[in-house]
Amino acid sequence: MKLGLGLYRHLLTRENFRFARQCGATHLVAHLVDYFRGEPANPQGDQPTGGDRGWGLAGDPKQLWTTEELVNLRNAAADEGLTLEAIENFDPAHWHDILIDGPQWSRHIENIKTTVRRLGEAAVPTMGYNFSIAGVCGRVTGPFARGQAYAVGMDGPYDTPMPQGMAWNMVIDPNSSGEAAPRATPAQLWDRLRRFLDEVIPVAEEAGVRLALHPDDPPMEYMRGQPRLVYRPELYQKVLDLRPSPANQLEFCVGTIAEMPNADVYAATEQYASEGKIAYVHLRNVTGKAPYYKETFIDDGDIDVPRVLAILRMAGFDGVIIPDHAPQMSCGAPWHAGMAYAMGYLQAAIDTCRKASESEGPLA
Ligand SMILES: O=C(O)[C@@H](O)[C@@H](O)[C@H](O)[C@H](O)CO
């Protein structure tokens, strides 16, 4: 198992690549969408939450990420000793009509195919994505974690209807009237995913890129009046069965699964790792269940993290694990300190897990 660090767009700097290596990371997961343009500005630093207008304006609908940009990023990371493992999340500006089934569907499918091909050309093996209309929304921050550390959580259902002009918790049309967007049905949303996979998986196979789906974050059946796909662990299987392929994989978010009511996070880890369907892992800790949960320090929540690591290892998972996000620590660099704490813990836990299984003999 390999340790990686995820960096938001504004954190993709040489200094942060060095920070990642100093924390023990060998791999990098990069976000190219900027989630920090929203109002009100996030006062607690690098944790995207946002209000009813979400994370602010999406990117440039006419400008896809170029192969050159991806190669430059991969090389800049490699210069500091990091392998670029994945890009996480498509820009809603490039694919919103796939999510909401709008008039630009065909153009947006071409956008995604082009992007996946470019990842392949740049030798980036994984594209993480989240197939969701309302996106990652309804979260709050507060001094929820040990020692009053600022962390992300949810304090109840979030039903404020999503307005037209938004998709995936970002603004795609600033001039939109703001009327409520039409509500999809769950069957329509599953059908949109099936059409997406049917179009894009063959391209991903050819490009040598794995698509890795993140579960709905937070894992609610509906958010802002819109249905969601993966809010119970077994719904991940439904995604895999829609289009079986080595390119149809999971961005396995342990924290999100633990937030699912009645979910057995250990059984889910065992199942999907044994199937060989986990492209990479988000590993953070949490207390409570959606819609009432709080993120915690990695050693301090409901999840037995060493147990998750042992299950992953026993199931033969040899991919990248990133801490996803972490509570912000009280100091001059709250995000960095929080991440360094999580990375140190994970580094030690992965090492202990490896030594324990080596002393038990080779894996079956
Ligand atoms: O705040 C964040 O960075 C996250 O919540 C992400 O893990 C997010 O859930 C995924 O990128 C969705 O694809």
Describe what you observe in this structure.
It is built from 10 helices and 16 strands. It has 364 residues and is α/β, with parallel strands linked by helices. It has a single domain, classed as TIM Barrel. The strands form 4 sheets. Strands 1-2-3-4-9-12-13-16 form an 8-stranded parallel beta barrel, surrounded by 6 helices. It has a 4-stranded antiparallel sheet with strand order 5-6-15-14. The longest helix has 26 residues. It starts with a strand and ends in a 5-residue tail after the last helix. The relative contact order is 0.14. The model has no long low-confidence stretch (mean pLDDT 95). D-mannonic acid binds next to loops.
- Helix content class: 25-40%
Structural class: alpha/beta
Spatial strand sequence of the major β-sheet:
1-2-3-4-9-12-13-16
Major pleated sheet: 8 strands, parallel, barrel
C-alpha end-to-end distance: 16 Å
Radius of gyration: 19 Å
Outline, from the CA principal axes?
globular
Question: Unreliable segments (pLDDT under 50, ≥5 consecutive)?
Answer: none
- Small-molecule components bound: D-mannonic acid
Could you name the CATH homologous superfamily?
A: Divalent-metal-dependent TIM barrel enzymes
**What is the count of helical runs?**
10
Strand and helix map with partners:
Elements lengths: L1 E6 L6 H9 L4 E4 L36 H13 L3 E6 L3 H8 L5 H17 L4 E4 L10 E6 L3 E7 L10 E2 L2 E2 L14 H22 L2 E4 L8 E2 L2 E2 L6 H9 L5 E6 H5 L6 H10 L3 E5 L2 E5 L2 E5 L8 H10 L5 E3 L11 H26 L5
Helix pairs in contact: 3-4, 4-5, 8-9, 9-10
Task: Write a concise synopsis of the structure shown.
With 364 residues, the chain is an alpha/beta fold.
